[in-house]
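QUALITY CONTROL LOG
STEP: pairwise intake check
CHECKER ROLE: data steward
CRITERIA: each record must contain a sequence immediately followed by its structure tokens, with no blank fields

ENTRY 1 OF 2
RESULT FIELD BELOW
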Amino acid sequence: MERSRVAPDLREKITAPVYSVADRFASWERLVRRLEPGWSSDEFYPISAYDNDLDSRDALDEVMRVLTVEAFEGALGQLLARLDARFGGATLPDPEGSLRPWVRPTNERPEEELGEWRKRKPVRVPWAE
């Protein structure tokens, strides 16, 4: 599907899905590491990248909803639960939605249907460093 959206000369260069489940997990893990204490980098990280990483977590939520119980409770479910717990430890509740002007979900959902990750804000703000 991703290949069908690009010019013919670029199609052959795409050898793996850009938005695979593995890539979504990698994106979520990178964000979690970025937010945790002790992480440092000179790499620029704009708030739009944070929004993209939250989109990856949204996609993982959709994937996990369609998995069998065995898969959900298996390695993928356990990995996601560990990453979510680490994210929770590196963020604070944001009931006032202070990031909402810059970080908006791509799916038009009512606020109450958003994942918990969309209702939290980083303790250490990576785009301000």
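ENTRY 2 OF 2
RESULT FIELD BELOW
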Amino acid sequence: MTAVKDSVHDYISLDPVAAELVDTPAFQRLRHIKQLSTVRLVYPSANHTRFEHSLGVYHLASRALSHLGVDGDRAAHVEAAALLHDVGHGPYSHNIEDVTHRHTGKYHDDVEGLVARGTVGETLEDEGLDPERVAALVEGDGEFGQLVSGELDVDRMDYLVRDAHHTGVPYGTIDHERLIRELTFVDGELVLAEGNVQTAESLLLARALMNPTVYQHHVARISKAMLRRASERLLDEPDIDAEELRRMDDPDLLVALRLTDSTSAFAERLATRDLYKRAVWAELPNVPDSIIDAEHDTLAAFERDIAAAADVSPESVILDVPSRPSMTESSSRVMVNGEMRQLERESPLVQALRTAQEQQWRLGVYAPREETERVGRAAADVLGLDADGALVAEVRSGLNATLDEFE
């Protein structure tokens, strides 16, 4: 066994198969992809990578399988899937995944091609493991796929604790040891055993608190939106395609952006943290459904219309519309009085957290600092926003001196 010292789980023991997989180029690439991407522009110590997170997921999967009494070939496949679950990530983690998905139809958990070919596939086959079976588990297929990708998966258990640890934000701290110890299967469903409604709530609460504080912090969202725009422009160039972009790591992408005329300005802004500012910051009830549910091309057309109305360059306007609020963890299953039930049926917390999530939702329109007021007024008009409920830059101008320090 190979022992690896980890900042969250102390020592992680890798069996010979895992040790071989860790040494493959596909896995080593994860050393160069930050776990939280642009969040590190808010929390300076959030420099951890997909590499260490993947080791943590493997560790928790091994512990969960041990508690569940699963060993042998079945356990080996699940452990391999847990270790390899993030090898499909593109540069800057989730930040440009929507961009590459529009061109390739693939998300990060579509790893069949990666694990079936090259040294990863060879290693799996040499160890008697089926690459297709491992890829299916990564996508959450089958009974044990739930452990890798599901409402009670070990992926979520690791990243919440790890992200909280590296940002210094306490909200993601969960009792992952208890969560693992209380996992069981009932009729093929991964559930928490009797008496664990509060245990399930802790996972839900941690995610709900980390979301606005870390994952959806406005600076992280602005930099993510800028990176997304730059990546779209990069794909307009003839020398690069989405599959190539998808296989880059963080430094690769930043270099490509710097060396391309149409994206070099964005690269410089991201590298020096000279970010766009909020021209509009609008709450959910004040945004028309047609905007919230609009497709990418429609949103791009709105950006052009806003730029024209504000008389600024199209590159000066970025419209950032998050998905509608969702809470997948609320469908986690727990045993109550001998019956398998969804958490949302048993927890009064769920509705309160849903309400909080809806209240925290914001549409953003971003622009260079000197153009925020013009862009804000134009955006409110073009998008048909409720001016009383949308925080427009013109209204914010008196606050900017205070806010800029933290942006």
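INTAKE CHECK: passed for both entries
DESCRIPTIVE NOTE, ENTRY 2: The chain is about 55% helix and 10% strand.
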